[in-house]
Write a sequence for this structure.
């Protein structure tokens, strides 16, 4: 079961598009305050997506990491 994790640039562009739709006069250029905030939020969101993908892989024995399998088995 593959999960599609959006690229950092795509997440940032979506946020900037939403800001532009809500605030047509907003400056969303590359060095604007909105762009910097959108990049920061996108970075955090991408980290959460990656964590979710890792957790999903650990659910199934055929995709789980060896250390996780040992822990699940109870051989700490």
């Amino acid at each position: 079961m593959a999960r599609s994790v959006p690229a950092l640039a795509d997440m940032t562009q979506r946020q900037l598009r939403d800001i532009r739709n809500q605030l047509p006069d907003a400056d969303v250029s590359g060095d604007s305050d909105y762009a910097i905030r959108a990049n920061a939020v996108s970075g955090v969101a991408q980290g959460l997506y990656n964590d979710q993908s890792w957790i999903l892989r650990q659910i199934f024995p055929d995709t789980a990491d060896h250390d996780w399998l040992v822990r699940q088995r109870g051989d700490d």
